[in-house]
């Protein structure tokens, strides 16, 4: 998702992430060189940054169903173009890192519109321990 000019593409949240009502524009940058870890950083405030990761390396069976309302908000016309990212939390040592499986970030790669989607009716964990599958 990089621009031909080398500039980072801006991801626009259709609804702000909980606790960050003034920040809707973010950039996604790789931080480890292995496609495992990314930083999702607010365009207007570099101090606001989330550690995110694609689910497959850690949770290969994770396949969230995105509801019709969320798809409509994203104006997603091609479900195959959706990028799902998990918000990670690291408290202390890296081996204690967890992922929020209940509320993934979903990005339409065509429009670059995003939303943090709460998977209603799910018993998925807010703090699932990370392990490379």
CATH superfamily: BH3618-like
Q: Name the shape in a single word.
A: globular
- SSE pattern: EEEEHEEEE
* Rg from Cα: 14 Å
The largest sheet, given as strand count, sense and whether it forms a barrel, is: 7 strands, mixed, barrel
Number of structural units classed as domains: 1
CATH-defined fold name: BH3618-like
Mean pLDDT: 88
Strand content: 25-35%
Number of strands: 8
Describe this structure in words.
The protein is mainly β. The chain has a single domain (10-129), classed as BH3618-like (Roll), CATH 2.30.290. It is built from 1 helix and 8 strands; from the N terminus they run E-E-E-E-H-E-E-E-E. It has a 7-stranded mixed β-barrel. Strand 2 and strand 3 form a beta hairpin. The longest helix has 7 residues, at 68-74. Mean pLDDT is 88; it is low at 1-6.
Name the descriptors.
mainly beta; 133 residues; 1 helix
Describe how the helices and strands are arranged:
Elements: E1 10-13, E2 25-30, E3 38-42, E4 49-53, H1 68-74, E5 82-89, E6 98-108, E7 113-116, E8 128-129
Parallel strand pairs: 1-7
Antiparallel strand pairs: 1-2, 2-3, 3-4, 4-5, 5-6, 6-7, 6-8
Summarize the structure.
By secondary structure, this protein is mainly β.
